[in-house]
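User: These chains co-purify. Model them together.
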Amino acid sequence: MKKEQYLYQLNKNSEVLAMGVKTRALKAAFPYTIPVLTGYIFLGAAYGILMNSKGYSLGLTVLMSIITYAGSMQFVAVNLLAAAFNPLYAFLLTLMINARHLFYGISMLNRFSGTGKKKMYLVFGLTDETFSLLCSTEPPRGIDRNWFMFFVTLLDHLYWITGSILGGVVGAMVSFNTKGIDFVMTALFVVILTNQWKSQKHHSPAIIGIGVTAACLFFFGSIHFMIPSMVMIVVILTLFKAPIERKVAE
Amino acid sequence: MISSLQQSLIIVAMVTVGTALTRFLPFILFPDNRETPQYIRYLGKVLPFAVIGLLIVYCLKSVSVLSAPYGIPEGIAIGCIVLFQLWKSNTFLSIGGGTVLYMILVQFVFI
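Assistant: Joint model of the two components:
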């Protein structure tokens, strides 16, 4: 074989091999994302219906699902769009509500290290559900870990976009009383908490989260309680670091 | 009130930039080549649990337990979601069933 021919063949082989890696990672990732598939189609549809019921176009609804891609924040954003125009407030509220993503990122620093070009997208797509999938699952043996994480993230993103399109279209065709539909967000977090509760032996972090926030809501009122809650949670978790760490490690 | 398309796009941009910032900041502050401090790793382990608790309270912030319906529909729906989830571990059933139950409660029972 001539050198060029040989190189061409080598290149082609590695391409086929690389495609195999991707396909296998995609196939391995899909089953893990099924719970998110059901959750996101429903949640995304609820968001789409909500946007439609407030009179926003399908384009805006879908655009937000593609570029913002933040479940609970998009529900909040529906109210922001309808309120008096205040970009700075929208930005600050987003930082506050999404501050939890800082913690997801911190938890994923090790896992995402060395993922190269995929890192940008992995970080962009780090939602509550994708985070909980990625930190609770290891890819099966023989599956490329980076591609596995990439496809879990991509599939979840596609489910969310699909759900919001469905919601926007269905909302436009069928009219029904949507009162109470925003409870879907509460339901989502209750399900996540229940799963976390089952997977952990010790529940002090969850109890601190609920207790501190409830106390702050009582003392600061429903408009100003988020920032004091987040500060207090970090302070208490820091003060009780030694005993909590001992329990969590057990 | 529905703002103009331009205003809507600015709000969407703000929400997008804010969200991306919270996601990228840890990776900018602690790049691959630097050891993450032990304290930060501890927070990374326990905060996700605390934050979900915070979010549940955030969702329920406008529920008044002192005036009718005293948070009863929320209580019933949350109780059912937890039971569904413990029983079947089916996210779709728990979220879907719980939300539909809540909508029925606030639309027909506790009007």
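Chain A touches chain B through 106 residues (CB under 8 Å).
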